[in-house]
Specification:
This protein has helices at about 30-45, 60, 75-85, 95-100, 105-115, 135-145, 165-175, 175-185, 200-205, 290-310, and strands at about 1-5, 15-20, 50-55, 90, 115-125, 150-155, 155-160, 160, 190-195, 210, 225-230, 235-245, 255-260, 275-285. It is α/β, with parallel strands linked by helices and about 325 residues long.
Length: about 325
């Protein structure tokens, strides 16, 4: 997949694009339906299948105090759309100037102009431009004069509920990672750099990688989970994952940590990127009245994780 960091950089020999329009946080089942339809339209028109990705959530610019925690950062969104077979991803910088652009000018300048869209594919709730005034109806009203088609994909539903980034956030925040996985079509994953911690896990016989997840990313509810830890070389390790403030040793004001114990792993992980996916809730965070009871609980976490991840899925 080719990645363009500027819409104006679309090569002159590209006759046009079929473009998926949306923010695509999480790249959930609804987004996947939009991207699949984009590939279909691209094949029909004989043009590249493209997706427009904003470099940050619009709310982080226009109302930062209410901006939601992200399910996926830009690097994750790029990786996920590439897995889904898109030919081209266009990254658009979203800043204050862009937030003030009228939807009509956005269509004329970016969509019809820079990206030479032949078809624009979106979900029912697409919004763009100043005050989110642009929507599917406005796209259709402008399509004829600008020479492109508008394809609207029906909302995807699961178990009677709408599949949306909001629904995924609610599931993740509640620790219902099974529900989140069903909405996403994959396990929920966070990533960050492995930093030095206080070494307490090693003294307990359960060494952990302390993964520093950026503060604008959404973490699952405090608890212990079974899941997987992926290294930069692509290797994957079953892991018991603790998310919380280690209440046995610290009060409620302790640092919020993501700690992963890799089953059967020996070696140093410091300084490398880590991708941690949470598959199954094991238990809540607990304050144990002795180190011995904590160690017993950790051993149980490891054995349950081993059983859950035995299939390798």
């Amino acid at each position: 997949m080719q990645v363009l960091r500027d819409p104006a950089a679309l090569p002159a020999d590209v006759p046009g694009t079929a473009l998926a329009l949306g923010f695509f946080d999480g790249v959930h089942l609804g987004h996947r339906a939009v991207l699949a339809r984009t590939r279909e339209e691209a094949a029909r028109l004989g043009v590249p299948a493209a997706v427009l990705l904003l470099d940050r959530h619009p709310a982080s610019v226009v109302r930062p105090e209410n901006a939601p925690r992200l399910l996926t950062d830009l690097s994750q969104r790029l990786a996920l759309v590439e897995e889904l077979g898109l030919d081209l991803a266009v990254v658009l910088r979203f800043d204050e100037e862009r937030s003030l652009q009228s939807p009509e000018d956005f269509v004329a300048e970016v969509l019809a102009g820079d990206l030479r869209v032949r078809a624009v594919v979106s979900g029912e709730d697409v919004h763009f431009g100043l005050r989110r005034r642009g929507d599917a109806a406005l796209l259709r009203s402008l399509a004829g004069e600008r020479g492109f088609e508008v394809v609207q994909v029906d909302t995807v539903r699961l178990d009677g509920g709408v599949v949306s980034s909001t629904a995924v956030r609610e599931a993740v925040a509640a620790g219902d990672v099974g529900r989140a996985a069903a909405l996403l079509g994959r396990a929920y994953e966070v990533h960050g750099v492995v930093e030095h911690g206080d070494g307490r896990g090693r003294t307990l016989g359960c060494p952990t990688a302390n993964v520093a997840v950026p503060g604008d990313m959404l973490l699952p509810a405090d608890g212990v989970y079974a899941g997987w830890y992926r290294r930069p070389d692509g290797s994957r390790h079953a892991a018991a994952i603790s998310i919380g403030r280690r209440p046995t040793f610290y009060d409620e004001n302790g640092l919020l940590l993501v700690e992963a114990h890799l089953l059967g792993f020996e070696g140093s992980l410091y300084g490398e990127q880590a991708w941690v996916s949470v598959m199954s809730w094991l238990r809540g965070q607990e304050r144990f009245d002795s180190v011995e009871r904590l160690v017993d609980a950790l051993r149980d976490d490891v054995e349950r994780t081993r059983a859950i991840t035995a299939s390798g899925v």
